[in-house]
Write a structure and sequence with these properties.
Radius of gyration: 22 Å
Strand order of the largest sheet: 12-13-16-17-11-18-10-19
Mean pLDDT: 94
Low-confidence stretches: none
Number of strands: 19
Structural class: alpha/beta
Shape: globular
Largest sheet: 8 strands, mixed
Length: about 500
């Protein structure tokens, strides 16, 4: 029997958020062991599902799920939480060995108070435990801030190549298949990473949109060269104040280091030539609302960039709601994270009237509470399933206890207990709301809601709202980033 281990954690840490990723939050999100991991993920299109499928292709091979946890993006991981998570994952690998290979389902942008490169520290410790001869496969998110520590301690590193991330399964398949080829001695991977002094604005990270689609096309040409095993364009995550923050490019060849170096450098140079086009802005709030209201038909989807739950925001920004009321624009649907308001709705019951303030309660970056009076139209436990395409391939969602309110002045507000980024229309449908029938839908995200929203949208507008995920990176004070880096330092040179 070939025994392959999988263990790890996923977190995208927004170091500008005031909400810490503490141990209680990880516990609440779920720390899974053993077959509970298979039950949650094997039928999804996630990284872990790809691992399960790839190992199942090999007669006599067994993938042993040990430990996994993932937490919605928020602030940096506390010391207590990161030590607990890494100790459990590494300890499970150590205590249940020996292994023929190890597969790690990481994100790549985890930051902790203890280790700014938390993913890299984890991979390093796994390597320390299994030794130099056990192949390690590392599958990462396209928003990872990739460190040399990560790739140097792994034999194979693959990265999502779509944003929204609809190829998590496929990239994990590739990662696992290549890792098993290393295990059998069929290939001898050589890896190169190029890290140009370049950020790409979140608004320009959609891989079906130019110029990012052009860059991916260049990578695809390089991928077809003889001896190339994998080529990854990594967009990076600009809301983590760490030294590795920014774009990177990874090339893996079969025993040809010069070719790997050439390809990574070629892609970095191509991105540098596109640097201005990779950093453009969004639409002002009032302009976006006016355009949406004037559209002949809906839904018009407004992406609330500054409150991108998938990027670490709290999901309770009211800035668009306040602007809509000021402009006299109704017919708007939006989800807000507000546990207190959910409890008030539960107390009122379905059909009950409420008059409460919702949202704008986390900090001073995301607006002030929004007063509503209206009817509670539905209540739910906030659990729903999405079998269609989703960002990162997840299937099961849990917004926590949820409520729907129709305000007297024409707003449809979905109130949820856990931050939720509208990655599935089921978020609304389980509460009796059909988004296709609404004129304006506000989605808490930038690209992650696109698999859900694009099929129903007559028009999509990215709104330049403030917040901890704003597209205007000049509003943040970075202390640990590389200097210089474009566009924060316009004179930067490769």
């Amino acid at each position: 029997m070939i025994r392959i281990a999988t263990a790890g954690f996923q977190h995208e840490s927004n170091t500008f958020s005031r909400v810490p990723a503490d141990l209680d939050k990880f516990r609440h999100a779920g720390m899974l062991e053993g077959e509970a991991i298979r039950a949650e993920y094997a039928t999804s299109q996630s990284t872990l599902a790809g691992f399960f499928a790839a190992v199942a292709e090999v007669p006599g091979a067994e993938l042993v799920p040990l430990f996994f946890t993932r937490l919605t993006p928020m602030g940096a991981i506390t010391d207590e939480a990161i030590r607990h998570v890494i100790d459990r994952a590494v300890g499970a690998i150590r205590d249940n060995g020996p292994w023929d290979a190890v597969l790690l389902p990481q994100h790549g942008a985890a930051v902790s108070v203890t280790w700014p490169d938390a993913d890299g520290e984890f991979v390093r410790r796994v390597r320390e435990v299994v030794g130099p001869n056990v192949p390690i496969g590392l599958a990462l998110d396209m928003h990872g801030n990739i460190s040399r520590q990560m790739v140097e301690n792994a034999d194979i590193t693959t990265v999502y190549q779509t944003n929204p991330h609809i190829d998590a399964y496929e990239q994990a398949l590739l990662c696992a298949r290549l890792t098993m080829r290393v295990m059998r001695g069929e290939i001898h991977p050589k890896t190169a990473i190029a890290m140009p002094p370049l950020l790409v604005n979140i608004l320009n990270q959609g891989t079906s949109d130019r110029p990012m689609s052009d860059l991916l096309a260049i990578a695809d040409i390089q991928r077809r060269r003889p001896g190339v095993l994998s080529v990854s364009v990594v967009e990076g995550y600009p809301y983590a104040d760490v030294a590795e923050m920014g774009m990177s490019f990874i090339a893996i060849t079969d025993d040809n280091q010069p070719l790997a170096e050439e390809i990574a450098a070629h892609l970095a140079g191509a991105a540098w030539e596109m640097r201005e086009a990779l950093n453009t802005g969004g639409t002002a709030v009032d302009e976006a609302l006016t355009r949406a209201n004037a559209a002949p038909a809906g839904p018009v989807v407004l992406f609330d960039v500054g409150d991108n739950v998938g990027g670490g925001s709290p999901g309770d920004s009211t800035l668009i709601l306040h602007a809509a009321r000021r402009l006299g624009i109704a017919g708007l649907l939006q989800a807000l994270c507000d546990p207190e308001a959910v409890r008030a709705c539960q107390a009122a019951g379905i059909g009950g009237r409420i008059a409460i303030s919702v949202g704008g309660k986390t900090d001073d970056r995301h607006g002030t509470p929004f007063d509503i009076a209206g009817i509670v139209t539905a209540l739910s436990d906030g659990r729903y399933e999405e079998t269609g395409p989703t960002h990162a391939g997840f299937r099961f969602f849990n917004d926590g206890p949820s409520a729907a309110v129709r305000s007297d002045d024409g707003y449809l507000i979905v109130l949820i207990t856990n931050p939720g980024g509208s990655m599935s229309l089921q978020q609304f449908r389980t509460l009796g709301i059909e988004p296709k029938e609404v004129k304006i839908v506000v989605a808490k995200g930038v690209h992650s809601p696109r698999p859900a929203m694009e099929p129903i949208a007559r028009e999509m507008i990215w709104v330049a709202t403030p917040g901890v995920t704003t597209a205007d990176l000049t509003t943040f004070t970075y202390r640990h980033r590389r200097v210089p880096i474009y566009p924060l330092d316009p004179s930067a040179a490769p």
